[in-house]
Amino acid sequence: MTTIDEIARLCNVSKTTVSRVLNNHPYVSKEKREMILKVINEIDYTPNSIARQFRKNETRTIALSVPSIDHPFFAQLIKGVSLQALSNKYKVVVFQTFYNQTIELELLELLKHKEVDGVILGALENNWCKIEPFLKYGPILLCNEYHHSANIPIIGYNEFEATYKAIVHLIEMGHNKIGFCYDTPYSEAQCQRKDGYLKALDDYNLPHNKDWIFGGVFNIEDGFHIFEQINNLKDSPTAIFTGNDQVAAGLIKRATISGFNVPKDLAVIGFDNQLICQVVTPTITSIDIPIIELGQKAFLKLIDCLLGNVSLRREVIRLPTNLIVREST
Amino acid sequence: MTTIDEIARLCNVSKTTVSRVLNNHPYVSKEKREMILKVINEIDYTPNSIARQFRKNETRTIALSVPSIDHPFFAQLIKGVSLQALSNKYKVVVFQTFYNQTIELELLELLKHKEVDGVILGALENNWCKIEPFLKYGPILLCNEYHHSANIPIIGYNEFEATYKAIVHLIEMGHNKIGFCYDTPYSEAQCQRKDGYLKALDDYNLPHNKDWIFGGVFNIEDGFHIFEQINNLKDSPTAIFTGNDQVAAGLIKRATISGFNVPKDLAVIGFDNQLICQVVTPTITSIDIPIIELGQKAFLKLIDCLLGNVSLRREVIRLPTNLIVREST
DNA sequence: GTGAAAGCGCTAACAA
DNA sequence: TTGTTAGCGCTTTCAC
């Protein structure tokens, strides 16, 4: 294996000089620089990145956790983070937690072991007190999830407001029996959505009904199941906030083939405004959120912390959301 | 930062002994082992992974390239690779090439720089002659793509046969004007599909028509455009193989809202058998392929090469595919 | 069973 | 402008 010493020997210079050329340091004479570069090219030498990382104690790699990569929202989030990382010459290790607490902690071990310089959590499986101790090993930030007291940057969008808007829209369309779906109750972001939902009901003097609230709902198949549940209720909602376009798509499909008219019999509103909204019939009303931008912003914030420009401290950034009305409401 | 020396000092042993404990080597007395373990726990010591990787010249990380992560097929592929990597305690760095040749080569630089132990290419942007030189730095294998001569393991499914089956199905449904979509002409896998398409036409004495072949087609939006193209033809096909469920979904949607009856006026067949097939109206006939398994197999094959159990040599593995008939044909 | 010592490839003080 | 030297944290001979 070719090393820096080999180059130094070939060029009759010290390896320091070679290292300087490699790192674009000043104070190398033009002739030497050129000669060294020439030799490097000729014998196809490549610096060993791991040795560099070891020496500098810096990996130029960050870790990103998501529950599962095959969910369009998270795929987009990864894309945003990756795009920004690419242009900053960082690598991203994507960790799928599969909604598993242990795997999330394993991701944080990477930080402890110095295998990554920082971490972006795209979801939160563990109680914050399990996460916090890892802060001493490097910066961690929360993206697309919220915590009421964690002393780190938090980047998301206004879940409360987005949900409130959505529910008010349903109310304005004449509905007063409105259901609500969420994924996990442990998520503070999801709780904020629920608060938005309840606030809208209260503001318009509509009744709450526990039967109209559905948890553990993530994907198309869950959408299928939700329809069965709704259909089995004695008193069913006439409109439902699904929390996610996949769920909306599954729900609409089952409702339609069971003879429901969407939106007349059941209005459905999604979340995320993915392309799937435009291909199902009827098309899905949804909340548009800037996911790519969310990922990019998260990465840039992490880099700030990494470079020490900004110390790690609580800061809540909320990106704007936008209601897109289509046929399903 | 705590190091192995610190532990050694605290325990009055050499760092060799600590290292032995850390690596579960034999020949450490029970008492010492227990004492060392105890101290390690107490002061929360973690070995520095980069130092280890440096010393062992092994990163336990592999790189995986895909064109773009937010395409359901590739998201699933990543999931398969990641699942298997997780259980083998490897990390996966996912590289999105965005269909860009330079980025694909950057990924291979990781191998050259020893930042990853091996590479799985989930697509192929560059000419093989650009890729081949990197083989001397570590194992590379091809997954979901094909090459006629590359001397590496190739894992995919039988594109020819799958497409042939699909076209024959359309013919049996009474169609004789059948269109074909592909993504990129550089892809040998796509060429095999085209061969399957043409063979089926020939076997049933159906005419070829260049106007019915559409390239550069990847996602839902492309499906939208394809419909416009078909609709503008004087002599349009009555059935179309889209090569991918996203395209099929987009195409079906536009056709339907333009008053076409799918499948009567235009039969559409997808590929990949994603959940989206079940939520659009009409539901989409598709080719089911074991994507997760594809990713898992690819990882396991790479590990085999890495561990030297198997030397890197040409080997073509083709997983089975299955035609799933639904309403769109 | 255990430890001393070398060294993986590189960068960065410091000296010249 | 250049080189000498030390050392990052760890594993692995080799000798005891």
UniProtKB/TrEMBL annotation, chains A, B:
Xref: SUPFAM superfamilies: lambda repressor-like DNA-binding domains, Periplasmic binding protein-like I
Annotated Pfam families: LacI, Peripla_BP_3
The entry's keywords: DNA-binding, Transcription, Transcription regulation
Record protein name field: NTD biosynthesis operon regulator NtdR
Gene Ontology molecular function: any one: DNA-binding transcription factor activity
Family matches, as InterPro entries: HTH_LacI (IPR000843), LacI/GalR-like_sensor (IPR046335), Lambda_DNA-bd_dom_sf (IPR010982), Peripla_BP_I (IPR028082)
Domain HTH lacI-type: 2-56
